[in-house]
């Protein structure tokens, strides 16, 4: 039997990747220009898949060397130094002794370089930090990529979940070093907490104020998804009714993770042709899996925040201060304003030119079903 032609829950690669043609083109141009870029999108929106695809395509042309560094779960400056150092060392793809000799030749500080091996025999590198000046070591490690710049090859450093740097109180120190790498190294700052990232890059009193190009990833359009899903079914000898695809997109609104999830689950239970009945069955399966997470998120909201979400949904995000709805849900305009601010800060709600909306489309669908019950 053919394997499922859809994938979700991890990095999307190769034939599983849908569209993003223009985004890929633009981000590759920015990388080659050495431009620093901020990329933000909700969790499970495909930003990591997009960036890695762009980097790997450039790497194939031998025009880019890249380092991908995830800041999530770092708790100390020393941990940052060692994990970043390890990520840089692995980028060299050289025998262990050559890597050690290379670092000894470029580092002004003289910490011991420690090498350990995992169960597969792959090396992990770290610095034995003792009496060294941590600030000086931090600066030296940040400057290591400058030694990679040669033969016209561009260096791209990706900091994922970059908003976590604030917990380490490294914002100013990091900015003071990275600003000296202009044009030589392109930095990609990624994150899923839009409110925190906006504070970091749009507040004139913060170190990274106006230091990057803002690159917002949007939903993949319905036509691209429809073409992708129909062709993937056809390539595996199955069919899917166009109305089923429409139903999927009505719920997911082009959100990549959920769209792939629906297409995957429906394909799994389809013998020959996916119809509306199979869509309903898959919907029940998916909602059953997500319900516990949604319940936890909903239970953590205040009463006014819950009321505010209901108003946003019923008013389609527009004119949310309608006195009729304030009276209906017994909430004052000032309380609504505070609830909206908190929901925006928690990245549950976002705002565009058309009004407010919930970032997670399946959470929105779940709330609508809760209201009907």
Question: Would you mind describing this structure in some detail?
Answer:
This protein has helices spanning about 20-30, 45-60, 75-90, 95-105, 135-145, 170-180, 195-200, 220-235, 240-250, 255-270, 275-300, 305-315, 325-330, 335-345, 360-370; strands spanning about 35-40, 65-70, 110-115, 125-130, 155-160, 185-190, 215, 240, 275, 350, 355-360. The chain is of the alpha/beta class and about 375 residues long. α8 (about 220-235) packs across α9 (about 240-250) and α12 (about 305-315) crosses α14. About 50% of the residues lie in helices and about 15% in strands. The model has no long low-confidence stretch (mean pLDDT about 90).
Give the topology.
Layout: H1 21-32, E1 37-40, H2 47-60, E2 64-70, H3 77-91, H4 96-106, E3 112-117, E4 123-128, H5 134-143, E5 154-160, H6 171-178, E6 185-191, H7 194-202, E7 213-216, H8 222-235, E8 239-240, H9 242-252, H10 256-268, E9 273-274, H11 276-299, H12 303-314, H13 323-328, H14 333-345, E10 349-352, E11 355-358, H15 361-372
Parallel strand pairs: 1-6, 1-7, 2-5, 5-6, 8-9
Antiparallel strand pairs: 3-4, 10-11
Describe the structure using short key phrases:
373 residues; alpha/beta; Rossmann fold; five-stranded parallel β-sheet; two-stranded antiparallel sheet; globular
- Spatial strand sequence of the major β-sheet: 2-5-6-1-7
Shape: globular
Percentage of residues in strands:
5-15%
Question: Main sheet?
Answer: 5 strands, parallel
Q: Which blocks of ≥5 consecutive residues have pLDDT under 50?
A: none
Structure in a nutshell:
The chain has 373 residues and is an alpha/beta fold.
